[in-house]
Known about the structure:
By secondary structure, this protein is an alpha/beta fold. The protein has one domain (27-334): 3-Layer(aba) Sandwich (Rossmann fold).
Amino acid sequence: xxxxxxxxxxxxxxxxxxxxxxxxxxxxxxxxxxxxxxxxxxxxxxxxxxxxxxxxxxxxxxxxxxxxxxxxxxxxxxxxxxxxxxxxxxxxxxxxxxxxxxxxxxxxxxxxxxxxxxxxxxxxxxxxxxxxxxxxxxxxxxxxxxxxxxxxxxxxxxxxxxxxxxxxxxxxxxxxxxxxxxxxxxxxxxxxxxxxxxxxxxxxxxxxxxxxxxxxxxxxxxxxxxxxxxxxxxxxxxxxxxxxxxxxxxxxxxxxxxxxxxxxxxxxxxxxxxxxxxxxxxxxxxxxxxxxxxxxxxxxxxxxxxxxxxxxxxxxxxxxxxxxxxxxxxxxxxx
Length: 335
């Protein structure tokens, strides 16, 4: 019974299809004060004569660099970055959090002093610029779940090293709980309204007891970066077509800022979906969906992030603020 077999396979194993050839990641280490740190790196085999962009991919809690790049079960939808990198001639690096997980935006100073993950990621960026022909103006960062908390920490502490960043399924710390960002950056955030682990509207699940921190809501996190950038209140709104008319999830994209190569803040609001990165090609096993909620199939999270990243370049603080001011003025004139 082929149909029964396919359903059982989906329930136990999920699916991991490809849209094209991808780069093969290799294991590497970088010496840090806390010891040798592991990461995976994938780079095109030869330079095409120009500098290459870099995408740093941060895995979630209980996962690994191997899992987020599709080398361990269950393959993450973010593993599609290996195919995007082959197509677009990018370098991809996935650091490994190691024992105890990330020292993220919720980490106390004592923990950071022992394991400074922001500094680790900063050193990886510098290493890639110095040894992998990476353009320092084209460095992008994306993290999922607790890796998203790590991405907030890096974007807040090292904005001068990034052209743009993206967070999937993670809200910022509430005001007063962590360091607030001080420099605007292009930011793209994905949030699912039925996420049972990191609530879309903030707070924390009752069943987490003392084992989790309350978080800022997804839309409030977007607002923090939009307000810092001085972008207008009214976004461009696109309702994505549904891949399955019977599906119980849907996606709406909001973009503040009109210049694709300038300062923008974006939100993908995924209604009805749970704690799972949206993807058509990389589908989590059914038994995982029982725990995390539905997985949307109307977009590829990595492709959506690359569409946002691809024209962004690192700017000085002054040029970003000037661009923001111009955007606000243009918006005022338009109204």
